[in-house]
Amino acid sequence: MxxxxxxxxxxxxxxxxxxFLAETGPVEVLEKAERVGGLVQCxxxxxNLFHKVGGHVFNAKNQDIADWFWAHFDVEAEFYRVRRNAxxxxxxxxxxxxxxxxxxxxxKATVTRVMDDLLALRERVGQGPEPYDNFRDFLEGNFGTTxxxxxxxxxxxxIWNTDLSRIPLEWLHGKLPMPNLREILLxxxxxxxESAMVHATFYYPKTGGSQFIADRLARGxxxxxxxxxxxxxxxxxxxxxxxxxxTDAVVYTGDVRRLPDLLRTDDPDLQQALEAVRNLRAESTSxxxxxxxANDISWLYxxxxxxxxxxxxxxxxxxxxxxxxxxxRTCVVEFAGRVGRDVMEAExxxxxxxxxxLADNYEPNSYVIQEKETRRTINALKERLQxxxxxxLGRFAEWEYYNMDKAIEAARDLARHLAxxxxxxxx
Length: 427
Ligand SMILES: Cc1cc2nc3c(=O)[nH]c(=O)nc-3n(C[C@H](O)[C@H](O)[C@H](O)COP(=O)(O)OP(=O)(O)OC[C@H]3O[C@@H](n4cnc5c(N)ncnc54)[C@H](O)[C@@H]3O)c2cc1C
Prior knowledge:
globular; FAD/NAD(P)-binding domain; alpha/beta; 23% strand; binds flavin-adenine dinucleotide; five-stranded parallel β-sheet; 12 helices; 33% helix; single chain; 20 strands; seven-stranded mixed β-sheet
């Protein structure tokens, strides 16, 4: 009989992994929540769609991943292609995003300082500045002190709630567009709308938001919801979950910090590697789902310290079906950390759009905080787990800042690896 693989967690990573693994053998997925989706879950609140965490939209740079994803959907019939229209609220005015391309919308004195900064930075190119190794130095070193203080520092401080110089630069690889003086100048002189730029659109389900994506990916898989795995032990060459469920390999997509309590082992090296992940840091988010006035914005960034929220995601603009229960539109206001409903309600009164609260949600695991040692610590644990045929996958298992497309890519790579391992051993 072919070996069975158990995937713990039915978020996007677990569902994608299960689909890839099912191509070569039996797979079962165990999910502690009552439904699939993890971070991408959505609820209906009086007929309006509430993304409980953020407002998930889909894009994939990697063509193989895009092809795999679209093989599960009818893109024309089931998705909208939505134009990205992001803005930044500064001094009561809406400014284009990314800010460096819309400098002409700022006051003359500010623009002059930004230009002086950028020209001075340009002159330093090639004169051997240290390569940046942390997020703070990268931002200030590439965008200049004026833009850093005006936008990058306050916005990122709200989200990460940490000293930006502690965030290593590897973390950013491929995630932030690198600023380029030529492009900044061209954008500001030509004043092209963002819609003319690359990655100016994203895909969004016509109904059901990101829950629709998770539900579709779960279709045809063996998924048991409402099952929280409480222990994993190695016994007689097999893995045993909760003392009774035998399996040949485990793909764990939950929070890696829980693994030291889940995994029973006498192996001192593995114990040490497990202990090393216990205190990784993450940032939580609180979301207030609201009705709002009509507008054409997709995301509104809120860098100013005078308001506590950092972003509004106008999910009601992505699909009209998201506002079925309302005569107005709907949106999600995102706050870093745990913020009480009363505080969020008071805060949204300071924001534009006549926001009326409908529902709220707190998500303890939203953003991983990567520090300089994080990747090494996770890789060491992966190595120690491999002989036990236990594998880490996903945003909070690998402690990576994955979006859905990256989570799917990681799932594909793991499945390929397991197919190779399975050919050599019995996993
Ligand atoms: C605010 C925010 C906005 C985002 N916006 C976007 C976006 O627009 N586009 C995009 O592509 N990505 C976006 N992302 C990223 C996206 O959410 C993640 O890439 C993706 O959801 C990660 O899925 P995952 O399966 O790795 O983790 P999770 O979704 O966390 O899934 C893990 C699952 O494991 C289950 N589990 C844990 N422990 C156990 C256990 N012991 N037993 C059984 N089950 C268990 C959990 O219940 C959960 O369902 C956003 C993320 C955030 C936080």
